Every structure is written in C-alpha cells, then in structure tokens.
C-alpha cells in the first residue's frame, strides 16, 4: 500500500502544475509507462528512467552500510545500474522498493549511454543547453562550467520532496526530484557511497570531458540543495560540471528528432 501511495503522490505533484503538451509512452522492453512533456521544440521524459536489466548493490553489512568492497565503480567501461535502498542482485526485488518506485534507477556513464528506450536517447550537452535557453538561462552564462548560471533551476524542480526550503515551481512539467548520487568514497578505495537523497539530483549528458589522464569524465547537469556541495550553488541554479564516469546518476531521455 505504501508503494502505491508514493506513486499516487508523485503522479499528482508532477501532473497538475503545467499545461505543456504531454502524454505517455510505454517502454516495450519491460512494459513500464513513462510520462513525457514537450518543452520548446524538444520532447523530454517527465520522470527519471527506471529501466533495470541488472542491479548491483553498494551495500556491505560487514564493513559500512553504504559500501561494497566487491564492487569497483571506478571501472569505466562496465555498465552498472543501482537501486540504492536494495541490497542484492534480484531485479524484481529491486523494482519492488520505494526508491525504485519514486526515483527510478541510478546509472554509471557506460550504462546511461545504452539504457534509453528505442526512439529516445541520452541528451547531449547541446540539447541540455537548448532546454536551458528556452527556460531562461542567459546566453552569456550558458557555457560556464562549475559556476552559478542564473536561477532558473527552480523551473525544472518538483514542488515537493526537496528537504531545503528552496523547492521548485515545476513550470514546465519536467518534475526533477532529488534522487541523490552514488560516488566513490573519500579514500578512493574499492567501494561506493550513496548520498543526497532529498537534496540533489544529477543527470548524465552524452558528452565526454577530456582530462589530464584521458576521457574519464562526462558533463552532467545538477540541481543541488545540499549544504555540503563542493560547487558554488544558490539552490536555484542548474549546475554544469564534469563528473567521473563511474558515478551513479539519474537519466532523463530525450526523444529522437
């Protein structure tokens, strides 16, 4: 019953506040129905991708509740999919969790590139910029990396589920909810940490980012209310910044033209 109550609240919050062109489609791979919304000339998924072909646990009860030392998420080429509140490798059980129902799945970069359904794809940095320009980011700050880029992020954030007082107006029905992020622990050993649920959401783009040691990062977008954020944020900005490909982020697919 609690799971269905969560789904009802999420549907209500993300459906009554806008009058954009919208509809639903079904992912034929698993039969899951998704909402979509047209923003400008683009058609975006209006909820996080939840396709789960396999699941990897970040838990290890013998060491730390948010670590699994048998999983090295720094591996860049291996696709990983995560449901943070599930400990195990059973896809059906992972799908029965409250996190999956509300937030979907977190993907590393290799998995994000391959996980969108047919007719949809992982959006590029340029496609994100088109969305950002449409909702009001000024052209002169569009390409800034790791800096404040206006205060239009609230237009994409959901009106509920954010712990901070700066929630969203969800003016376009994008309904970004704070799913959290999976990243390497501070010692950079084998293992991972999940944090930020209720405080932030990061989305993959398809664009890689060259670093001093090669293309080990990709550009992401973030909406971040976290008090411990490593980047400058006023809780209203859309963050544009490179992040390690091994991290676990949310995915919003965009429809092919």
Structure description:
The protein has 257 residues and is an alpha+beta fold. The chain has one domain (2-47, 57-78, 108-255). The chain is built from five helices and twelve strands. The chain has helices at residues 2-13, 91-95, 98-103, 109-115, 125-135, and strands spanning 22-27, 32-39, 42-45, 81-82, 106-107, 120-121, 181-184, 192-195, 200-211, 214-224, 239-244, 254-255. Strands 1-2-3 form a three-stranded antiparallel β-sheet. Strands 9-10-11 form a three-stranded antiparallel β-sheet, covered by helices on one side. Strand 7 (181-184) and strand 8 form a beta hairpin. The protein starts with a helix and ends with a strand.
List key phrases describing it.
single chain, 5 helices, alpha+beta, 25% strand, 3-stranded antiparallel sheet, 257 residues
Determine the fraction of residues in helical runs and give it as a percent range.
Answer: 10-25%
Note the run of SSEs as H and E. Answer: HEEEEHHEHEHEEEEEE
Q: Give the termini separation.
A: 39 Å
Strand order of the largest sheet: 1-2-3
The shape is globular
In oligomeric terms, what are we looking at? Answer: single chain
Tally of helical segments: 5
How many beta strands in the DSSP annotation?
12
Query: Major sheet, described briefly?
Result: 3 strands, antiparallel
Uncertain segments are none
Structural class by helix and strand composition: alpha+beta
Mean pLDDT: 85
How many structural domains does the protein architecture include?
1
Rounded radius of gyration (Å): 17 Å
Percent of residues in β-strands? 15-25%
């Amino acid at each position: 019953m609690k799971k269905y109550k969560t789904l009802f609240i999420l549907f209500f919050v993300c459906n009554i506040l806008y009058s954009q062109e919208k509809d639903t489609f079904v992912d034929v791979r698993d039969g899951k129905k998704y909402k979509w919304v047209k923003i400008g000339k683009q058609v975006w998924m209006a909820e996080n991708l939840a396709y789960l072909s396999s699941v990897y646990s970040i838990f290890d009860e013998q060491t730390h509740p948010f670590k699994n030392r048998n999983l090295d998420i720094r591996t860049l080429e291996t696709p990983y999919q995560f449901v943070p509140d599930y400990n195990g490798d059973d896809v059906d059980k992972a799908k029965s969790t409250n996190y999956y129902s509300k937030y979907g799945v977190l993907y590393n970069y290799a998995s994000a590139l391959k996980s969108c359904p047919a007719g949809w794809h992982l959006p590029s940095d340029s496609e994100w910029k088109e969305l950002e320009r449409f909702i009001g980011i000024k052209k002169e700050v569009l390409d800034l990396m790791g800096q404040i880029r206006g205060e239009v992020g609230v237009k994409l954030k959901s009106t509920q589920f954010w712990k901070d007082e700066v929630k969203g107006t969800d003016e376009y029905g994008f309904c970004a909810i704070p799913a959290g992020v999976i990243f390497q622990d501070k010692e950079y050993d084998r293992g991972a940490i999940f944090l930020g649920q209720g405080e932030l959401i990061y989305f993959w783009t398809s664009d890689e980012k060259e670093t001093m040691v090669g293309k080990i990062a990709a550009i992401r977008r973030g909406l971040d209310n976290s008090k411990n954020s490593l980047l400058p944020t006023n809780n209203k900005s859309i963050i544009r910044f490179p992040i390690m490909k091994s991290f676990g982020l949310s995915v919003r697919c965009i429809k092919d033209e």
